[in-house]
Design a protein that fits this description.
37% helix; two-stranded antiparallel ribbon; alpha/beta; 9 helices
Amino acid sequence: MNVEIHQSWKPYLETEFNKLYFKELVEFIKAEYSNHTCFPSGKKIFNAFNHCHFNDVKVVIIGQDPYHGPGQANGLCFSVEEGINHPPSLINIFKEIEKDLGLSYPKSGDLLRWSSQGVLLLNATLTVRANNAGSHQKKGWETFTDAVIKKVSNERKDVIFLLWGGFAKKKAKLIDKSKHHILTSGHPSPLSANRGYWFGNKHFSKTNELLESLNATPIKW
């Protein structure tokens, strides 16, 4: 696995790449990709960083694990490749956008259009073995992505963090609340959404209102 990550991130993450845990993680990932089908494709592992550069980050959305079905994962949390059926959580995200902003439901589940506007779509674990959810957890990815959150928190100002569900909410401790904005709600998965913890959170309009108050361009969700 080559760490092909956009140069804007390198000054902030170079120290992580040189740490023992990351070198061991690279060896693990190389072996997994050699011996098993894994997702996303190798060149898309760092997609979240390559399409949302460090100084462009306005919003951070934190997911947990990449999708583990064929052709789904594209390196951006909650996002799927063009032409792939939308998974349940993504359907609920789009339904909330429909209600919140009055926009029509999109055909494409590829969230690259968000990423290129400054939305860092960060999974806590960046890879997974096919049909084996969570198979690459606790191998070092979480240490790395926690470091990413801390770097954004320390080096940037007025970033909006959207923490959906219990797992993402635990990341709040990594964020300096005195200089950033945190919006929390239940997870968009059907289990949470159908219990009333997701729909109506208005996170998309609230994010844009915050951006406008900061004289920043709102996101075209």
